[in-house]
Each structure stands twice: as C-alpha cells, then as structure tokens.
Amino acid sequence: SFEDELLRVTIHSALHLMGYDDETSELRAAMSLREDHYLYRLRH
C-alpha cells in the first residue's frame, strides 16, 4: 500500500542519516534486513 511504501522510504532515509549505506549488494541486503526489522517493530 501507499502507507507501507511511505513508511519503508522513511525508514530507509533514517538509516542513511544514521550512517548506513547501500552502495553494494551486500550493504543493500543488510539495509533491507534493517528496514524489515523496523517495519515489523512499528507494526507490532
């Protein structure tokens, strides 16, 4: 949904502000896991 995507982009941006990077496939995978973690925490 739009709300889910907005939340994911917000979390993604916050992770960048905290110093996380996604320039390589490994870093992208790690960031995706962090996004999923925070999405889960915010929903439950």
Structure characterization notes:
- Keywords: Endonuclease, Hydrolase, Metal-binding, Nuclease, Zinc.
- This is rRNA maturation RNase YbeY.
- The chain is mainly α.
- The protein has helices at residues 2-17, 25-43.
- α1 crosses α2 (25-43).
- The model has no long low-confidence stretch (mean pLDDT 96).
Concise overview:
By secondary structure, the chain is an all-alpha fold.
| Strand/helix succession | HH
Approximate strand percentage: under 5%
Count of helical segments?
2
Write down the overall geometry: globular
Percent range for helical residues?
A: over 70%
Total strands: the figure is 0
What integer value in Å does the Rg equal? 10 Å
Query: Could you give the distance between the termini?
Result: 17 Å
The total domain count is 1
Structural class: mainly alpha
**What's the main sheet like?**
none
On the 0 to 100 scale, the average pLDDT is: 96
InterPro entries: MetalPrtase_cat_dom_sf_prd, YbeY, YbeY_CS
Pfam family, one: YbeY
Protein name: rRNA maturation RNase YbeY
Keywords: Endonuclease, Hydrolase, Metal-binding, Nuclease, Zinc
